[in-house]
User: Fold these one by one.
Assistant:
Number 1:
Amino acid sequence: MDEALLRGLTPSVLTVLVRRGADFAAAEDAVQDALVEALRVWPADPPHDPKGWLVTVAWRKFLDATRSDAARRRREERAEEEPGPGPAPAVDDTLQLYFLCAHPSLTPSSAVALTLRAVGGLTTRQIAQAYLVPEATMAQRISRAKRTVSGVRFDQPGDVATVLRVLYLVFNEGYSGDVDLAAEAIRLTRRLAAAIDHPEVRGLLALMLLHHARRDGRRGPDGALVPLAEQDRSRWDTALIAEGVAVLQAALARDRLGEYQAQAAVAALHADAPTAEETDWVQIVEWYDELVRLTDSPVVRLNRAVAVGEADGPRAGLAALAALDPSLPRHTAAAAYLHERDGDPATAARLYAEAARKASNLAEQDYLTRQAARLNARLRHGPGSP
Amino acid sequence: MAKYLLLKHYRGAPAAVNDVPMDQWTPEEISAHIRYMQEFAARLEKTGEFVDGQALAPEGTWVRYDGEGRPPVTDGPFAETKDLIAGWMVIDVDSYDRALELAGELSAAPGAGGKPIHEWLELRPFMAEPPTITD
């Protein structure tokens, strides 16, 4: 069964129900029920008209739930009067769904969960597995998110920036499960790019494509992290790189630079270099200067310092690093790298070990510990050893 | 989105403010304490932040490999072990600040005299997956 097809239909089925007058929360539940039923029934009995099937089943689920709700309400003494269905939304419905699910009143984790379910068409169980929490917890997170946005009118224009942040989170948090969240984020960003003409949406899509293209090269056969400079570039996906570069160039041509376009430009320069040595670090530093101007983010300044170390030598990189808060994530790791390049393996080994203790994930910790061990072995056995 | 472990210690944590051993409490105080813990977990389930919670028996066994073909060696429990974990709760929250807030609430569980224990809890972040975009 084509699960991607099923997931792709979700937002339009949901908007059909909303257009027929169902409120968002109830419609979303009904579509989720229909989805779960489709996953059960379709493999043995695929429908001729998948969308028609989903609309029919979802609408029936909605009516069933509404009837049992109504029966419950009749048992109560004074039922509150339900508001009538609002006017049919005139603007693009899928876009409105993105806005609603990434509404600024939601916490990031709630917005991510709701987006994956209502726009992405994933089941609660799949989302729970992807984020390693119990299904009941994820179900609560989603229903709470729906309560939070229950007062938001479906036809209100939303904020593209919050939608992009949610999609970026889905892409960048490398959790794993049956669902490939990175691929899912790309699918949802493609769809968003089709629904709205916005250079930053294209910038984010380009950024995702360019990083996704390098995915196979990021891990060695044993699962260990391989740093960019040591990656086997023949394992990069050239078709994805070409697409990412094309999407980015079209976005940049609009002359409305934003942080995602600038980040994608850095990624494009890496993807474009046939070897690590041929990387255009001078241009990368220039893009980081743009990013500092756009975001003033300390993490960007840290990345800039590393790029300066490549463009102008490790001393220049260390000087740039010295101006930054040493408690920044990866500050110690960057210092270790630059000290080794500067010909000081003893300091580098000490800093790599310290960076390993501060790492926030196991893959980086393993990588940094290995770096420290490599330098310590060299220091013990003299410069001739590997 | 980050997972944290809230560790509760039998021994090894700094002394609580309301530091009266549980066997000196009244039965009602014990019930109130247990109810508080259950309600705390239930509330976290409702907010979609609960992952897991377990209590551990105070006494355990030390085990180690003893060579090919031999059964593992066991030892203990050691009465002098300084650090003794009583139980844990795993939460999945949006921020470190939220984790602190929840740990603070859990530490306010009522003890002797119905007053908050002000117990020290250990908050440990989980190792996450590495992010995709780092350059």
Note: Residues 92 and 125 of chain A are 29 Å apart (CA to CA).
Number 2:
Amino acid sequence: MVKMDEQKKEKIYFTIFKIATFFSVVLLGFILIYIFVKGVSVINLNFLTSMWNHQDITKGGIFPAIIGTLFLAVGVSIFSIPIGISTAIYLNEFAKDNLFNRLIKLSIRNLAGVPSIVYGLFGLAFFVLLLKFGTSLLAASLTLGCMTLPWIITTSEEALKSVPNSFREASLALGATKIETIKMIVLPNSLGGMLTGSILGISRAMGETAPIIMVGATFFMNYLPKSAFDKFMALPYHLFILATQHSSPYSREYALGTALVLIFLVFSLNLGMFVIRYKLRSKKEW
Amino acid sequence: MNQQKKIIENITKKWLFLVSLTTLVILIGIFFLLFFTGIKAFSEISLFEFFFGTNWNPTAYHEPSWGIFSLFIGTLMVTFGSLAFAIPLGIMSAIYLAEIASPKVREIVKPTIEMIAGIPSVVLGLIGLLFLSPLIAKLFGLSSGLTGLTSSIVVGIMVLPTIISISEDVITSLPREFKEASLALGATKWQTIKMVLVPASLSGIVAAIMLGLGRAVGETIVVLMLAGNSRAFPTSIFDSVRPMTANIAIEIKEVIRGGLHYKSLFAIGLVLFLMTFLINFISDLIIDKHVKKYKW
């Protein structure tokens, strides 16, 4: 009798847990379908490839915002991928467990927790005003670069840790120096993982809105940024303004269309990286 | 030849070390810029007014007021509102994925949930604006659906993947003997989960919640779009609130650079920075303890 009760209880609890889990899945499905169904009506070639028309938003397109977001992603990558990967190599391959290196690790963990708006304040005070970059593509790239750095270091460290130590030991035993071991054994086996992980981090940065409001994004430009010191349009900021501050009766549809393009960009990048990672992983035999 | 290799190795090592200092420099840089800009605000604003004044109105014509207490309460309201929603859902999902679901289901569902973390927050804000806020206004008979509750729900969705993913990792990384011993003693699966697995992974789950807490405190764009941004002191979750992050985002573009208002926004930034720093520090301590407890 007692046992029956316990089993019944178990069944009830497990069903609740199952519902809770699938709630999240349904939520994701709902979000994607909602954006797709409501946003797809404004998507056409003109919307994707022509310049923004401020007077009549139904005539213009979001081409400069797409380009701006892509430029920003490239700018962030140039800054944060080399520094992030180098830091990961140092921490995983060279750093001894001393106070200084622990301090570096502590700062990485803490940087990951700093709110994006605080990065925005930092970018504004440091890159825009102190270094006099102005509100520009450069200032925004550096600001978001600082923000993505801890993510890139963490994922790169994971890739490095997945290379078995026996590989390193075998190489060192054959008389190779540490640098040679890293160059010929460790990096070829981990670079794929480091780069795909980094690009995942960059794709997250592409969707950030709060910091770029302060350091360089603008709502209306009728030309593409020509230099790193130009302002730029960006998809997330564009859709934010359309959703909250634009007076056109069509602004909602266009905000949803912009959201669809943004999600498509971010998710196709994510999906591509997942596929590459999966292939890289299945090639390994240890 | 050997000598040369050694020199190259040394230079490379030093170079990599210098590069890896970047993160430390950025963290210290952020702190100092916030600190030295924010602190200047207090030459004209009293600390007491800043922290305990309930009225934030720097652009008032007669006498501007600088109290962030209402904003601070707004932040707390959205943060704890979102956690009230995300913690139970997150822990139940984590337990389901770690202990109940078949490996095949887990392999599909876990990455799917993590995809939610990949949705840009501004897109979630948009859905909150177009779908959730009218729904909430209708459901509770409010004149506006832009409330603390609306933003809490959406921020809760944002922190959900963090809580699920880390808690699940913690539960699956427990030693197998825990489970086996309990089952061997005749406990049911549910009893094992309730009395062995959850208590044993509690510190790890708390750390996951702390990380979610940090994200919720710092979330800006969703609250900016959904919380309503009224500066009045919030009395209920159905009020329009203006959390600290949203306040910075709203006002920073309109202030005179270097003016008192600008400095006071940096002071708010400093408060946010210190809050998240503290949250991180505590969750670090908890994780450390957890790792030490279960290192066999």
Note: The radius of gyration of chain B is 24 Å.
Number 3:
Amino acid sequence: MTSSLPPETLTLETLPRHQRAAVDMIEWERLAVPEARRLRELGFDQGVPVEVLHRARMGSGPIACRIGRMTVALRRAVARSIRVSTAALPAE
Amino acid sequence: MELPPLVAMVGNPNAGKSALFNALTGARQKVGNYPGVTVERHSGRLALDDGRAVELVDLPGAYSLDPSSPDERVTRDVVTGTQAGERLPDALVVVVDAANLDNHLRFALQLIALGLPVVVALNMVDLAERDGLVLDPAVLERELGVPVVPTVAVRRRGIDVLRARLTALVGGTTAELRRLRPSDGSVDDDIVTLQRRARTIAAAATVSETPVRRWNHALDSVALHPVFGPILLATLLFVMFQAVFSWSEVPVSWIESAFAALDGVVRDAMPDGFLRSLLTDGVIAGVGAVVVFLPLILILFLFILVLEASGYMVRAAFLMDRMMAQVGLSGRAFIPLLSSFACAVPGIMATRTIDDEKDRLTTILIAPLMTCSARLPVYSIIIAAFIPARKVAPFIGLQGLVLFGLYVMGIVGAFVAALALRRTVTKGDSSGFMMEMPKYQMPRMGDIAIGLWSRAWIFLKRAGTTIALTTVILWALLSFPQAPAGQKQADYSVAGRIASGLEVVVRPIGFNHDIALALIPAMAAREIAVAAIGTVYAIDDVEDTRGERTLVDNLRGRWSLPTALAFLMWFVFAPQCISTIAVTRRETNGWRWPAFMVGYLFATAYVMAGITYWAAVFAGL
């Protein structure tokens, strides 16, 4: 699945810590239905600013990220389907 | 009698709903259940400014009206008036986190669209200000079309204004704020659309914003650090278990002397006979043996409640997710499992927040392996009797270390069980872990006190009813028929004869007749094992006419160390608790899973106790 993306595509999984970015696109079809719904309920949407705050351990374990004014923990598999971009950040 | 108007408090998880509920109702709260489901119904009375009383109900936190758990379903059904056993609320208090309007306003918009009179509590405004966020409630009021009251529930700020608004709202004939129920289809249920609208409103209401959260970030950079985070968590848990033992010493001795004094009073006031024996050897010895553990249980709950209220618990879940994922669970299971350290019943009920069915079932099945507070009486009496109270290192006592070891044993057992279950009976895809991490917050002692009080009350009620009754029955079974001279009463009695049958089964794992006897009533609740042994020795101890010999002395004289260790190991695994079995049946809708749980846990307990006993015997202990 990951290989279908161009290598330079940044996802929430690969976004460097504390680098400010915005959600570019979410690959909803890669997520389980309840997962996708929870993600929407937590406010994940195109154009929303995100920032990776913590990674539990290199290689595996969940990621803590800031979305809006909330801190949300999610697993890497989910973070992988959230494409982000560091260009064109909305002014804060 | 006509029921008072109903006001429902509703909002996202982490909006500070419960603190606001406590602020409005004080300690006058009732905890019940919604019929047919195991969702707790928290309600309380609130006197409005004009003297009318309303019933305030605190609904489970939800993210939307599209439920993904039984808790969220109750919330939806109550606010839409379709919940069995609940009337449609006369008004809603919608609680939103001021620092998280983007997200919380979406649910608020859904709720306002229902058409019930609504007042919005813009809660935790102090934390928002600390974050550098300044909001204009007037803009929010205009955009939402309902009154908005800034509150700080934990500091009791804004409560009077909120009550005044509610007074105007409830049953008000003017009802200029009551919106018309929108016609079908006009409520846009699409999450994304509502979310965008929420963001627009939040942006409009924001006067100024400095995107900093130094406090939280600084704390999180330690709490979630790949190395220091787990060390901090392990330290916290270790301190918690040491504290359970060391802080409780003094209050335990008070309770002990109080029961000893009571025993003395009864012995002096009554002539020797069956009634006196029933009261002293039965009721006082039995209930006393259990009530002394109240301090331990309260200290444990104190830690759990503080960790939860401070926001640390979700960080612990974050840290644990990786480990939980390895046994096929998610970090979400950590909170129910940690609650199970206090009691498996609320722990199993807390699994309702786990969306994935297989994940939830596995968590329920291993929850009884977490060392619940009912095991503490058993553990601590055996440890006090057989483990010397010396220090192995500064501040680390051997007794506390053994207790910690028993907790670790339960955790390791649970993980092994989860691993096995996930590969066999609860096979399936591993589920996800997605959780909002609330801001850190200083817990308010009053809220903690209310939580502790309700736990203490439940425990004492149990000690006064189930446990008292069981010990009286046991006393009767132990006292009749009376043994002729030269025969031991505990062997000759009805209970003794039943135990003799069971003893054949448990003899190979090092259990003696007294233990076999104690295991039967301990099915009602584990802590009764201690009460039962206490009763056996009280009746049996003919020389000790004034109840002076303690249970610890009796144990030391009658049990070998391998037997004591096997007994401890038995209680790590044995599913000896009717309430847990009952709640499992309720939560899994049938007898299949509780039966499975009881079977696999008893088998494990038997094998592990046997291994412990024979290993100790061969080690020459």
Note: Chain B is about 60% helix and 10% strand.
Number 4:
Amino acid sequence: MLNRIDKSIPLYFSAAVSVLIFFIFVSLAVGVEKTPDPVNESSAQIQIPPAPPTNVVAQDIPNDKGGAITISWDKSADDGGGAKNVTKYEILKSTQKDAGYKVIGNTTAGATFFSDNTAPNGVPYFYKIRALSPAGSSESLPSAPAFAKRQWFDLSRLSLFILSLIIGFAIFYFIEKAKSDKGLFIRKIAGLEAVDDAVGRATEMGRKIIFVPGIMDMDSMQTIAGITILGRVAKLAAEYEAKLEVPVCTSLVMVTAREVVKEAYLNAGRPDSYNDNMVYYVTNDQFAYAAALDGLFLRERPAAVFLQGQFYAESLLLAETANSVGAIQIAGTAMPTQLPFFVAACDYTLIGEELFAASAYLSKDPKLLGSLKGQDVGKFIFLLVILIGVVLLTLNSVLGLNLPDLKVLFQGI
Amino acid sequence: MRREVPLVLTAIVGITMIIAHFLPPLNSLKDLFEDWFFIIAAFAIILGILNLILVNGNNIYRKQKGWPFGVVVILGFLIMTIIGLGFSGGKSFQDPGTPFYYLYTNVYSPLSATMFALLAFFVASASYRAFRARNIEATMLLLAAFILMIGRVPIGYWFSDWLGDALGKTADWIMDFPQTAGQRAIMIGIALGVVSSALRVILGLERTYTSGE
Amino acid sequence: MDEMANREKKTLWENLLSIDRRIIFIFIALAIALPLFFKTSLKMPVSPVVQEVYNAIESLPAGSKVLISFDFDPGSMPELQPMAESFFRHCFRKNLKVIIMGLWPQGPIQANIALDKIFRELKEEEKAVKVPRYGIDYVNLGFTAGNEVVIDRMGHDFQESYPADAKGTPLSKIPLMQGVKNYDNIDLILNLSAGYPGTQEWVQYGVDVFHVKLAAGNTAVQAPSMYPYVQTGQLTGVLGGMKGGAEYELALKRPAKAVSYMFSQAIAHVVICLFIIIGNIAFFTLRKKKTLKLEK
């Protein structure tokens, strides 16, 4: 059992950290050096100018919030070598066709695009491109007028929008429907069935349960799914009076996991058994975290290890070490690259979507189960689209037809 | 109130982020929320560091089991921070020649690489234990593993050069087709799982993470 | 006597079925370490996914701008650092302009380590070649927090994520960055990735949204999950692990670190295969014995 922290220690270390933070600011202030301005390549005497760029086209950037125009042009004939070799292009802008041009930016030789992000909506602008070389400069003819527009809807994402609506609606529909329908079937997930046994085993052996919620932050759905399972494990641990330890990799996960474990102990009627030190921060560094956990596994020889969340290369380092100390291991991740490692080294593994289904499975809440059914509708749509795509492409290549390609529908995504 | 506020906030931010993906004028709101996340996460690091120092400081103070590790943690933290911020030329601290660069290349790099290198050993022991031809599926898995392991190293080429690098080509085929097909299926399942979980969180059905039941 | 011999035999098979992991570790250590002392020239074909990456750089005209995102830390250095060095060698050989950035805090330092090595090499070996100048031939923008959001914002304007380079020089004062507004002004993006954020995020936020041309180097573990993107053309090509790095060095006709380590990797693979075979032989022998016993 972790002891409560002595009151004087926080004070002592807080003072040390304050000094350190002060030191950080001072050193940052002192450390900012003046960097010498890099040499500008200056253009020399003006003699024979290069050929001007041609075909300048200005147009509103589609599907944006407005305020931007994209300008494209064909390179100067002298871009790419020779005595009159172009060194850069300057972009000029004006509200009048024949006068008032000002340089608004430049590009290196070879470039044929520029985005002007300083164009207010609805104001027509003319653009010219100036090619510069050591021997002089020349300007293109002005472009046709263009003005920036705000688009309220990004049309390039229409297919994604429709797909999201259908899947979202399906999930929503089945959640609603599930409220009245109590008999939703969900297949057995062995890994989740084993949670009770693992906690029970730890209690019998008098050894710890270590829960690892992956190495990512709270913005990962996998971490959230892992934390959900932690809630269940913590509740069981509280009921069985088993010892739980949650070393985490990021600070936000620490804060969240503490809340969840605390609540679980409260719900189990054992708030006194909860201690903030059950959940603690180790380090953000992937391999340092793996090293710390491996050390912990070897010293504590936990009876059960839960690896639930988003894992990377540390997956096998953790799983194999926990295996070597004889811990029962229940892993779960949606990282396709790490799944083979978990399957090889752990007793049970929640594969991909099983991790996300865990909360519904464990709580048996019909609303959550309904969302799983909605998810299946999404899967069915995916299968259908894949099937149609495959048939179309096969017909095209076998019969030499020119049927529409489904790829077009999903280009904007 | 303690339960409702987080749920309402989650719903507002979540729905805004989804809508902003399709409505360009809302992009700046999306950017704002993203900035907030990084600011919160950055400040949370201070919490993490304080916790790290407290837990390890307490272990050392009470001479608990494994307290020397706590000394290493605190010393490592202080040395790297002080040298990096104070004695490594300000913003040029990452340049070759600075004390920070020296510590990075000679202490941090070898330690990290060693941890990653352990994978080679653990892969060997795990695959020795797990790869047993118990049934047809396991046998196929085993065969595929053999072809890949040998086919993707020069020895495989040396073995099957006379067959037109049959091993290497089979390995490439396994990677390109059965492997990719499996990856895709898992990716689609996961993507849908993420969508459905995210919706559950936004709709307030999933509350464990806000410490609700 | 017979019974005793039988028992000994049995324990032998049983032992082979559960070899102590430490014995396996020793064999692996030897298999990896010993070949490092031998200089061998192993032949290896360059696979198409690697050749594509090579072609993508090779086809760029001098002066083109290449953005290299270093999204890894020293942990994956053995796999990704040789790739980083090869990318630099290739880019500088072709007189391409290199913009370095990192979505991982350690990334830009890894770039500095690779550059340091390449510059020393250039000074020693290829005296004719000019050593690239900072700000003109290459620039290191450093690390910015924000993961995929950084990729997204750079698509609108680099300044949104990087107002200045790693040393604090404003981008507007760096000659190389003149005219670099966003991805429109970048000819190719290379990404060296060991996880999140990495190639997957570059594909989802860079390629899919801004239609950039992307090629990547990945750790061997992660590479398989990039194959779907290569097939769809979202990713130009991918170097997977040490093998990918070695093939790239061969494509570049400049064998270096990765090629020299391939022999170790090959032997290690063979040793792992041998252990699996031993385990299976023991497994089948014991199972046969058990069924024989049951039949009796």
Note: The CA atoms of residues 92 and 132 of chain C lie 7 Å apart.
